[in-house]
Amino acid sequence: MTDQFNLKNKVIVVTGATGVLGKSFVKAISNSGGIVGVMGRNQAVAEERVAEIIGDGGEAIALIADVTNEEQLVEAKSKLLAKYGKVDGLVNAAGGNMPGGILQPEADIFGMSMAGMKEVMDLNVWGTLLPTQIFGVEIAKHKGSIVNISSMSSQQAITKVLGYSMAKAAIDCYTRWFSVELAKRYGDKLRMNAIAPGFFLTEQNRTLLTKEDGSYTDRGNLVLNNTPFNRFGAPEELTGCLVWLLSEASSFVSGTTINIDGGFSIYSGV
What we know:
Layout: E1 11-15, H1 20-31, E2 35-40, H2 43-55, E3 59-64, H3 70-84, E4 89-92, H4 114-139, E5 144-149, H5 162-186, E6 190-197, H6 206-209, H7 218-225, H8 239-246, E7 257-260
Parallel strand pairs: 1-2, 1-4, 2-3, 4-5, 5-6, 6-7
């Protein structure tokens, strides 16, 4: 690894750090020399991941906050600044789907839950914008990078997950728009990009894609049939791109969404 990819002494906040993908993110950042702000709502898991990083010779701090709660985010930022005095990067990994944002095939399309759709939108959209507003102002004082998490569902219609799809489409738009405005105000000091994962097994989607015996559900098989690699991704397969986007190695990259999907997004199925 060259110095370009080195995150040594960079203080990087990861929201959603108590999730499956978040775990791989904080580990990769630490392994690249970064100091990690491990943010999530589950204090026990956040502290466990901080302990793991410290046990491996890294440095991290637990930041307990709901990404849709501005007051909690401000408190988390104050805690981080009191210890490290700066913020160099942000990974907006908090998000996910919710039952209210799902429309089952047999359901009345005109009877979908507006409240459920809004709840999913709030988590994924405002749960990205709010941390950016609060931590981004600190990153802009130095030089750094913000990475959002998009989804395959923002690029093509994936059945059932309407709320999540709309939210991630908004993230794509936000990433492009905000990166331009950042450049107009800060030049190349502050960049924003996004990663669009394909299908990775997480706690949220595991029961949708796999059965208790480990075999695949009908939906799981549909995903694999449309993925040229014919497998699900491993969380660690996202981290090389993440570290690159956070590092100086990607210093001329902004407003881009990078697919990490085993070919899902470009395969017609034929």
